[in-house]
Every structure is written in C-alpha cells, then in structure tokens.
C-alpha cells in the first residue's frame, strides 16, 4: 500500500502551524498563553514571563552576499524582541543558537555576535544561553526571547472590538524596497562585476532591510499615556496579512484607508523608480517590524500628537468583511497579498 | 591587507563558546545565572525560571536513514529536558523550531511532532511556541526548554566540594554502542541492500541511542530524600568530559574508580563483539543523558539502596589532579576522551 503524501506548500505556513499544533493540550496552570500569538505567556507566581522564538536560515531568510554578519546578528535579535514588544511586554533575556558550515571563520562568527551584543545593549536584554554546532550547508540561527509583563497586561491579537481604531507605527514598505534594491544590485554585480553599486542615496530603505529596530519606544509611550491596546501584533509579513490576522482572530471586519497608510518619501521615490505601487509594497512587503494595534476611540486624543502613530482604519462587524478604501474612491476586498479587485 | 582568519576547529566547541561569550555583561537583576551551565536561571519575583536550548542538525547530530522521525522528535525534546533536570529544576514548557527542505512531506513532519508530543505528555511539559521554515538542505531542529525551581535550589556545576562523593545514574556507554551498531548496519546495507539487518537482540542499546529518557525520577527521588547535590550536570558528551567540567569549574581534583562505572550487561557483550573496551565507551561515548552529581558523604545512607545511583569516585584537592584508578590497579590521568596512559 502506498503511503499518503500531502505537500507542505498546499497548506501554507499558517495552515502548517495550525495542523501541527491542533492537538495541544495545556498541562501546566502556569501556561497562560501557548501557541498562536507573537509569543507565549507563562505565569510564574504573580509575574508573567513571555517567550518568543524564530529561526533564520541562509538562502531562505537572508543572503550573505549583501548582508553584513554584524547586521544579521543585530536583526536576528531585533525580530524576536519585536514579538515581545508586540505582547505589550518588556524583553529581558535571549538565547541564541547557531549552526554553520566550515566556510565560516572565527572572525565571521565574532562579527555576527558583535551584532547580537549591540542589540542586547541597545534593548537592555541579557544573552543567557544558546548552542553552537556545525551545519552541512549554510548558516542557521535560532533566537528565543524572554520578557516580562505585569500580570494580565499582555495584549493578544484576538481581543479587538467593533469600533476600535486601527493604528500602525512608523512607516511601511521600506524594508521590502530595500530588499528589492539589494537583489537588483546583486543581479547587476553577478552579470557585470566591474560595475560599482551606487547605493548612497538609498541608505534609508537599505537600513530598514538590513538593520531594523523594534518599537520599544512605542510600548513605553503607550504605558506612559496609560493606553492598553485592545489587540496588537508586529508587522513582519506585510500590513494586509497582519490586519487580517487581527480581524479573523477577533472575529471582526475591518476598513483600511489607503491614504492613511504611512509611507516614507524615500520609499515612494524608489517605488516609482522601480515601477512599483508604494501601497502594494506596504500591504505585502513585510519585515517592517512596526507595531499594528487597535485601541478604544476614547484614547484617540492621547495619540494624535505622536507622529510615530498613524490611525489607518477601524474595526467593524464581521458581516461587513475586510476592505480597503483606495485613494481613487474604490472599495476592494483586503486579501493577504494586498487587495482583490475582483471581489468587492 | 589580508584579513586574519582563525579556524573554528582550532578552538573546539567549549573554546568557541568561551570566546563568543567573553564580553557578556549582565544587565538585568533578574538574570541569576547566564551562559556557562546546562541552563540559565531567571528570577521572576520570587520564583526562578530555568531556560535551556539545543540545536540538532541533520547529517551532524542525526542520520534519518536509521532514525525514525517520531523518535527524533522525542529525543529532541528529551535532551533539552535533561538539561533542566540537571539544574535540579522541573521543566514546564518548551518551544520547538524546525527548518526542513522540500523533500519532507506533511506526514513526515507529523511523525516528528508525534514524538515531540509524546515527550511532552510523558514529562508533563507544554509546547508553547516555535517557528517553522524552509531550509536549503536537510532538517534542522531548535528546542528551548523552560523550567522552574524553588528559589536558590538550582544546582550548578561549579559548587562541588573536596571530599564529596561523585555519583552517576543508570548505566553508561549504551547510546554510543547503539550508534556504532546502527552505523555498521547502515554501511552493510549500502554495500549489500539485500542483506537484512538483524537488530532484534540489540533493542537495549539501540533504544538508548534512538529514544533516550531524561532522569525525572532521580530529581524526584533526591527531593523526596531531601538531598541537594552539591553540583550536577547531565552526561551528554561522555563521562570523562563531564567529570572534568565539574572538577575544573569547582576548582577541585577527582578520583574515579573504573570498576564502579555502571555498564549494562548488554553493553559489555556488544562492546566485546565490536572489539571495544566497555569502559572507554562509557568514558568517551556520550549521549547517555544520565545525571552526574556530587553530594556530601553524610547523604550516602540515603542513596545506598537506590540501584539507579552509583558512587563512582570522590572529589579531591585541585593539587591532586584528575585520575582514574583502573581495574588493573593503575592510576592514569583522566582526559576528556578517556584517559592518558602517558601522563600519570
């Protein structure tokens, strides 16, 4: 008898995670929140611990041809800290495990760890463990971040309410445009190694790709202003995908205004140059590591003067679906990769 | 100018870790113990959290030709739990991240997770997070285990004292012999695929390699008997390497009696068949996941009837060095890969 074989790509990443975690039964009273959000929450006698983990694989998540190892170490930490902040928690410790092929020298690993330590210092976290081993091919990084939060002050994705304002921090799309530029320059270099790349005017978008930051400042601002978001997550896969996560998990609909999506002037210019739609880059690009959150309308006055926070829409009843209102006045169905002009 | 290049193998694994962690400065008061032991310890307002992490890489740590994926999932969890028990702590949660090439089907991943969940159930821990991604080649697993311990009841490697008894649990060398047997059968199969492997008589040593267990029972026994080991670690790299860790980190010497090292009858028989010295397998084999600990002589009466605990030596002043007294009455210097007959 032939064995059944289902291809993993048929499920997609989230389908795969759903599938693999479908039978989990929580056994410890201290496990407050398990799989399914940016991070897990553990209650250790009054204080709550938050854990998040990510794996980065050479050739899949990064290309060492244009990624300095120091930036890679920094980014590997920051993307995990971003998950902790997205829980409304404060990161306190990390573990870093790496596997590397024999083409890496000690100097190369040292450069990587310089980036790790730079991120630890900037965000005030301790590296408390890890593992190093060989790989047959390439460089593999696994980071686990641990944080703490005042009991029950953590913020999930599933608790937005109808009428809540939808907000996002910073600007979007630049990391994707930075990647597009780096990939283009790589291609040119491989075809004509004598052509020198001219990236000087593009430090903003390249920096957003190679050395992202986590929004510690926003979590501090929200605490200072006594705002507890009703739901929150970080923008790692692209705005539309993340908005749909919050809507779906909160059992709500959503309206997004295209003209409210924050996009930097540098990003608009380079998008034009590449013939790309800046809005599409923001919706589908990913790796921005900004915070997407919902909050009560009553809190609007507290954030209106903060230029780092944009209100981009609001949550509706689930029967109204998830839509984007474009600059041109059209209403399209929001889908994970942007919008769908065929299903209004 | 040429860049400096130091080869990683010149340092060895522990030298590499020492090098990469040499500049760590602890920033959070809650970080009780960082890099350098089986796991880190975090103090979260009275209760202490213990974290440990390991990365397993196909072709380096395991061979899927003879490792069933379910056993691999089980083992990946157990080796991390073993580190938590080695801190005298109780594991409570794990995260599991995997990267896999496109040769893996959903059924294959499911089999792996069946093993993960079987270990979770057996040891009473919750899977609370993780990450899945593609790899360019092979299967990569990163597990982080979290545990808890009554404040300051965790046991380090560095706190053994002169005169303490050196103890080890279970028996040693079997996992290495299981690996040797599996590697031999693989070689025969690759040369003559028509020859059927006959492993039926060897279930003990193969089980010790493919499906090890962590010594939860011992930690419970020690607590029940009110014994706090003076130092402890798990045996993952081989007995002699681990004994030297405890001696070095505790700034002591040690005497090990060859005839006290526990080795199963099955292991002795297969070692003979392979022309291997059973003691050498125990000293250098590794992957036993037994507990190695030191305790006060006054606690001896409490453990003497426990057949799972063997007293194998005692700690001495550092000036006396680290030695093994062989069955033949000779005294040799203990080295990480067994003993050295040239340096007495």
UniProtKB/TrEMBL annotation, chains A, B:
Where do the annotations place Mg(2+) 3 binding? 38, 83, 234
PurM-like N-terminal domain residues? 36-149
List, in alphabetical order, the GO biological process terms annotated in this UniProt record.
thiamine biosynthetic process; thiamine diphosphate biosynthetic process
Positions annotated to bind Mg(2+) 5: 237
Keyword Metal-binding recorded: yes
Q: Which Pfam families match?
A: AIRS, AIRS_C
Which InterPro entries does its entry note?
Answer: PurM-like_C_dom, PurM-like_C_sf, PurM-like_N, PurM-like_N_sf, ThiL-like
Q: Where does Mg(2+) 2 bind?
A: 54, 83
Q: Where is the signal peptide?
A: none
Which positions in this protein are listed as binding Mg(2+) 4? 38, 52, 83
- For the ligand (ATP), the binding residues are 113, 130-131, 157, 236
What remark does the entry add?
Reaction mechanism of ThiL seems to utilize a direct, inline transfer of the gamma-phosphate of ATP to TMP rather than a phosphorylated enzyme intermediate.
Q: What does this protein do?
A: Catalyzes the ATP-dependent phosphorylation of thiamine-monophosphate (TMP) to form thiamine-pyrophosphate (TPP), the active form of vitamin B1.
Any idea what this protein is called? Thiamine-monophosphate kinase
């Amino acid at each position: 008898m032939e064995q059944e074989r289902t291809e993993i790509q048929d499920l997609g990443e989230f389908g795969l995670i759903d599938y693999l975690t479908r039978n989990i039964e929580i056994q410890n009273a201290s496990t407050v929140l398990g799989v399914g959000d940016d991070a897990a929450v553990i209650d250790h006698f009054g204080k709550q611990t938050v854990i998040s983990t990510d794996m980065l694989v050479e050739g899949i998540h990064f290309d060492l041809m244009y990624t300095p190892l120091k930036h890679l170490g920094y980014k590997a930490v920051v993307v995990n800290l971003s998950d902790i902040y997205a829980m409304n928690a404060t990161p306190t410790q990390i573990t870093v495990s790496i596997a590397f092929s024999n083409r890496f020298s000690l100097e190369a690993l040292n450069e990587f760890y310089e980036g790790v330590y730079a991120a630890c210092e900037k965000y005030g976290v301790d590296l408390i463990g890890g593992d190093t081993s060989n790989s047959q091919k390439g460089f593999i990084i696994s980071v686990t971040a641990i944080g703490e939060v005042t009991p029950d002050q953590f913020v999930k994705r599933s608790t937005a309410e109808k009428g809540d304002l939808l907000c996002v921090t910073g600007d979007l799309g630049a990391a994707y445009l930075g990647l597009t530029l780096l990939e283009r320059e790589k291609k040119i270099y491989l075809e004509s190694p004598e052509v020198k790349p001219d990236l000087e005017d593009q430090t903003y978008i390249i920096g957003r790709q190679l050395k992202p930051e986590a929004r510690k400042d926003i979590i501090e601002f929200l605490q200072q202003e006594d705002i507890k978001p009703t739901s929150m997550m970080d923008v790692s896969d692209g705005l539309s995908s993340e908005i749909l996560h919050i809507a779906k998990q909160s059992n709500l609909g959503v309206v997004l205004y295209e003209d409210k999506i924050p996009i930097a002037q540098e990003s608009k210019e380079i998008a034009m140059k590449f013939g790309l739609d800046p809005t599409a880059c923001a919706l589908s690009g990913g790796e921005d590591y900004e915070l997407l959150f919902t909050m009560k309308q009553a809190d609007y006055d507290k954030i209106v003067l903060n230029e780092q926070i944009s209100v981009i829409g609001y949550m509706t009843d689930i029967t109204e679906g998830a839509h984007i209102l474009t600059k041109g006045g059209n209403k399209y169905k929001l889908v994970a990769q942007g919008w769908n002009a065929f299903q209004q």
